[in-house]
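can u do me a favor
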């Protein structure tokens, strides 16, 4: 069984390498997990850029804060806070991503992980469809919500 999965992995890896320099696929062809993969990277890069802008140079502190902010637990809370600000289309993307089959890591509960996947998928989707202004709004609002949640936990 494991050998079959590894062969499938190698096959998909080869396909990805062959397609990296080819024309990008259409937005509708992406899965919710693919959007979440991209959204995770977008959110992490945004958070890291904002952390660098604080002027703090201690990488231990920067890494610790970045990891906490982009954790599944925190992203789940961000989506709960921002849910009312989402458009019907954005809510639909989140719903579809929440319902997608995902393997839940030990670091988060199933509901938390599904909501964090929904948040990431929404960010990835907005980027793929070229809605950079809306993406920037949600990234900023998400970071603000994350910081508020973290501050309220320490009180």
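np, heres the sequence
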């Amino acid at each position: 069984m494991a050998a079959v999965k590894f062969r499938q992995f190698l096959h998909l890896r080869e396909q990805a390498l062959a397609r990296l320099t080819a024309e990008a696929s259409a937005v509708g062809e992406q899965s919710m997990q693919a959007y979440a993969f991209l959204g995770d990277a977008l959110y992490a890069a945004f958070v890291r850029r904002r952390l660098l802008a604080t002027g703090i140079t201690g990488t231990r502190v920067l890494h610790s804060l970045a990891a906490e902010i982009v954790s599944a637990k925190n992203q789940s809370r961000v989506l709960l806070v921002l849910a009312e600000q989402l458009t019907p289309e954005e809510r639909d993307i989140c719903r579809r991503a929440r319902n997608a089959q995902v393997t839940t890591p030990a670091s988060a509960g199933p509901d938390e992980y599904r909501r964090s996947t929904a948040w990431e998928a929404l960010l990835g989707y907005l980027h793929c469809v070229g809605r950079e202004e809306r993406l920037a709004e949600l990234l900023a609002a998400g970071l603000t919500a994350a910081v508020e949640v973290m501050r309220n936990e320490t009180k």
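The longest helix spans residues 132-154. hope that helps!!
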